[in-house]
Recover the amino acids of this structure.
C-alpha cells in the first residue's frame, strides 16, 4: 500500500479514536461503536494480512499477533488500548518502511555501477544492445559520460576515465589505445572504441555486484547468534504470555484474569523478532556496502568480524608495500661523474631487456647511439661485457668484478650494478624497488589501531628485504622464501603463542593465492581485474593502496560496534519492556514501541555503517 | 547452476531469514542467500531439479510472505 493511502487510514483512524475518547461514558454503546470503527479503519490492513497468513498456514506472523492482542483488549473491555495497538503499529510500520526504503536506496546507489546498455558497433553503425548479449570480440563504442559496459581493450580513442565506483579513487585515469579498460568505469570526455574481452557475466562489474550481493552467505558469529536467538525468542515470549495470563490468577489471591490477560497481550506485541533479525545483518551489509564504495570489497560479514579481532599482520613485499617497479636509487661514482658512470652502464646493458637494464635506461633518459657499441656479450649470472667507445666496459654484480680480478668497493642496499672501465673500477649504481607513497606511516597507524606484530615475507634477497622492512617499520622480516616457505612462515606467525588474535595476510594476489587462502583474513592488493586474486582473497583492495587496509579495518571495527550496539539495544529494550509489562508498569502502547520502535531505531543505527569509513 | 529471484515487496527481515532457512532445507538446493535489502534470493541448485525447486520456492515464499511478487532474473 502506498505511503499516502497508509497515512490517510492512520489519520482517519486517529480522528475516530479521539472522537470516541471524547464521547461521554453515559453513551457507552455509541462509544463502543465509534471505537470499533476506529479499530477497523486503522487496523483493516493488519486484519487482512493476518487472515492471509493464517490461510497460508503461517499462523504466528506479526499481523496475527497484533490482531490477537487488539482483539483480546476488546474482549477485556480495554477499548482505547485495542485501537491504540493497531494504530501505533501502523505508524511504526510506516516509519519502518521509510527506514528500510532509505537503506535500500543507498545500497542501490552503491550498486549503481551496473551498465544498462552497450553501444554495439555493427556494420559501421552503433546499436544499443543489452550488455548480456554482447560477445567476446565484439566492438563497442563508449561515448563521453557513459558507463563502460564490459571489460575490454581500447582500440581507438583517448580519454580520461573515472574509476571511483570501482576503486574509490577520485582522480581520473588517462586511457588510450591498447590499454585495458574495466566495466563500471565512467568515460569522461573522448569517445572510446573498445574490443570486448570478457562476457558481461565475467566482467568486473558483474563480479563486484555478485560479491557484494552474496556477501551475506559468509555469516559472522553475531549474525548466526541473532538468527538463532530469534528462532527461540518468539515461541518463548508467546509461551510466557500464556503462562502470564493463566497462572497468576489461579495461584494468587485476588489476581484478576482480565488484568493478567492485558499484561499477556502486551507480551504478544513485543514477541516479533524483526528488529533483532534485521539489525545485525543490516549493519554488516551496510559495512560491506560502505567499504565497496571506497574500493574495498569484503566477501562476508565473518571477515569483518575476524579483521576486527586481528592483532598480527603479515605483508608481502614486492607489489604490496613496494611498487614492484625498479628504479635507480643511488649512483656512487669513482674518479668519474655520475652521468658518465650511468652512460657507461646504459651503453653496456643496451641489449638487455632485464628490468634492471630498463631502469638504467629510464634514469639516463637520453637515446643510445648504437654505433658507439662495438660488441657486447652476456656473462651468464654475472653481467655484461661490452666494447663501448673503444673501451672495455664491465657491468654486473660483485661476482663479475671478482672473476675479472678488479678491486671494487662493496655497496649496500637493493640490487647493485658495479661498473668497471678498462679494468678499473668506476663505481656502482644502486637499483631498488620503490616504496609506495602510502606505505610510509602505515605500520605505525596499524599499531595504533591495535596490531601488535607486523611481519614481512618475501622471495627477494635479504639485503633489499631488510631495507624495505626498515623503511616501512616492520617488526620481523623473512627473506629469500619460496612460495611454499611463505605458507610455513605464515603458520609460524599464526601460531605465535604470545599473540592470540587473528592473522591478516596482505599480498598482491597473483602469486600469493595459497598464503592468502591460509591466513584468517587474506587481503589482496591491486586486484582490480585479476580473477585469481578475487577468488583467493577474503578482502580485495581494488586500487594499489596499502592505506586501504586501514579503511577495511575501520569498516570492520565500526560495523562490529554497530552490530553489538544493535544486539544489546534491541534485546535489552525488549526484555525491559517485557518486565515492565508483566509488572503492569507500562501498558500496551509502550509494548508497540518495543516492537516497531526498536526496529526503526535499529535500522537507522545500522545505517551508520554505510557511511564513509574514515581512517583514524 | 545459479538462479536469481527477485522478491518484490519483501518487507520483513525475519520473514527473509525464515525463507532462507526453509529454502536451505529443500532437496537439491546447494546454497541459498536471501538478501533482504536487495530483495533477492540467490540459489545454487542442481539443474535437474530446477522446476521442482522453483515451485517449492514459490510455495515457501508465499506461505511466509503472501504479498511478495516473485520474478526470475
Amino acid at each position: 500500500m502506498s505511503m499516502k493511502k497508509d497515512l490517510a487510514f492512520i489519520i482517519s483512524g486517529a480522528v475516530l479514536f479521539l472522537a470516541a475518547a471524547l464521547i461521554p461514558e453515559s453513551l457507552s454503546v455509541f462509544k463502543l461503536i465509534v471505537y470499533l470503527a476506529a479499530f477497523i479503519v486503522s487496523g483493516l490492513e493488519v486484519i487482512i494480512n493476518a487472515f492471509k497468513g493464517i490461510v497460508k498456514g503461517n499462523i504466528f506472523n506479526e499481523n496475527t499477533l497484533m490482531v490477537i492482542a487488539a482483539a483480546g483488549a476488546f474482549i477485556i473491555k480495554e477499548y482505547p488500548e485495542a485501537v491504540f495497538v493497531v494504530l501505533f503499529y501502523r505508524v511504526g510500520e510506516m516509519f519502518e518502511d521509510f527506514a528500510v526504503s532509505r537503506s535500500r536506496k543507498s545500497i542501490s546507489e552503491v550498486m549503481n555501477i551496473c551498465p544498462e546498455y552497450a553501444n554495439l558497433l555493427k556494420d559501421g553503425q552503433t546499436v544499443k544492445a543489452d550488455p548480456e548479449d554482447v560477445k567476446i570480440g565484439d566492438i563497442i563504442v563508449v561515448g563521453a559520460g557513459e558507463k563502460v559496459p564490459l571489460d575490454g581493450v581500447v582500440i581507438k580513442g583517448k580519454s580520461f576515465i573515472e574509476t571511483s565506483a570501482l576503486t574509490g579513487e577520485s582522480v581520473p585515469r588517462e586511457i588510450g589505445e591498447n590499454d585495458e579498460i574495466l566495466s563500471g568505469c565512467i568515460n569522461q570526455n573522448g569517445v572510446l572504441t573498445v574490443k570486448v574481452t570478457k562476457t558481461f557475466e565475467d566482467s568486473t562489474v558483474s563480479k563486484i555486484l555478485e560479491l557484494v550481493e552474496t556477501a551475506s552467505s559468509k555469516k559472522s558469529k553475531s549474525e548466526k547468534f541473532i538468527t538463532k536467538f530469534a528462532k527461540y525468542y518468539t515461541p518463548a515470549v508467546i509461551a510466557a504470555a500464556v503462562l502470564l495470563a493463566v497462572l497468576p490468577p489461579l495461584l494468587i489471591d485476588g489476581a484478576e484474569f482480565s488484568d493478567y490477560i492485558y499484561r499477556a497481550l502486551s507480551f504478544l506485541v513485543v514477541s516479533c523478532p524483526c528488529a533483532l533479525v534485521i539489525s545485525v545483518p543490516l549493519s554488516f551489509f551496510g559495512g560491506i556496502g560502505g567499504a565497496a564504495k571506497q574500493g574495498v570489497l569484503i566477501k562476508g560479514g565473518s571477515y569483518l568480524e575476524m579483521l576486527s579481532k586481528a592483532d598480527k599482520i603479515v605483508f608481502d613485499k614486492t607489489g604490496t608495500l613496494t611498487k614492484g617497479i625498479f628504479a635507480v636509487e643511488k649512483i656512487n661514482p669513482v674518479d668519474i661523474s655520475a652521468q658518465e658512470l650511468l652512460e657507461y652502464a646504459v651503453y653496456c646493458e643496451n641489449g638487455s631487456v632485464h628490468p634492471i637494464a630498463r631502469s638504467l635506461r629510464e634514469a639516463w633518459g637520453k637515446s643510445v647511439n648504437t654505433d658507439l657499441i662495438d660488441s657486447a656479450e652476456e656473462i651468464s649470472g654475472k653481467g655484461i661485457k661490452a666494447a663501448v667507445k673503444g673501451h672495455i666496459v664491465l657491468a654486473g654484480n660483485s661476482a663479475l668484478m671478482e672473476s675479472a680480478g678488479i678491486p671494487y668497493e662493496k655497496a649496500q642496499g637493493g640490487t647493485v650494478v658495479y661498473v668497471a672501465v678498462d679494468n678499473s673500477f668506476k663505481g656502482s649504481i644502486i637499483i631498488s624497488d620503490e616504496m609506495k607513497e602510502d606505505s610510509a606511516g602505515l605500520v605505525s597507524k596499524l599499531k595504533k589501531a591495535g596490531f601488535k606484530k607486523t611481519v614481512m615475507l618475501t622471495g627477494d634477497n635479504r639485503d633489499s628485504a631488510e631495507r624495505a622492512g626498515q623503511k616501512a617499520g616492520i617488526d620481523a622480516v623473512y627473506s629469500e622464501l619460496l612460495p611454499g616457505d611463505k605458507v610455513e612462515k605464515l603458520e609460524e606467525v599464526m601460531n605465535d603463542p604470545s599473540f592470540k588474535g587473528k592473522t591478516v595476510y596482505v599480498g598482491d594476489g597473483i602469486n600469493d593465492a595459497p598464503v592468502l587462502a591460509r591466513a584468517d583474513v587474506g587481503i589482496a592488493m591491486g586486484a582490480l581485474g585479476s580473477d585469481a586474486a578475487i577468488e583467493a582473497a577474503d578482502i580485495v583492495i581494488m586500487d594499489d593502496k596499502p592505506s586501504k587496509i586501514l579503511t577495511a579495518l575501520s569498516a570492520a571495527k565500526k560495523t562490529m560496534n554497530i552490530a553489538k550496539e544493535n544486539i544489546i539495544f534491541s534485546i535489552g529494550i525488549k526484555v525491559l519492556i517485557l518486565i515492565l509489562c508483566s509488572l503492569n508498569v507500562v501498558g500496551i502502547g509502550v509494548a508497540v514501541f518495543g516492537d516497531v520502535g526498536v526496529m526503526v531505531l535499529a535500522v537507522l543505527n545500522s545505517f551508520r555503517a554505510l557511511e564513509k569509513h574514515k581512517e583514524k | 547452476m545459479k538462479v536469481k529471484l527477485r522478491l518484490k515487496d519483501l518487507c520483513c527481515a525475519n520473514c527473509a531469514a525464515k525463507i532462507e532457512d526453509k529454502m536451505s532445507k529443500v532437496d537439491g538446493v546447494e546454497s541459498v542467500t536471501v538478501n533482504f535489502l536487495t530483495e533477492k534470493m540467490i540459489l545454487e541448485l542442481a539443474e535437474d531439479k530446477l522446476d521442482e525447486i522453483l515451485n517449492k520456492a514459490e510455495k515457501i515464499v508465499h506461505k511466509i510472505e503472501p504479498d511478495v511478487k516473485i520474478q526470475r532474473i
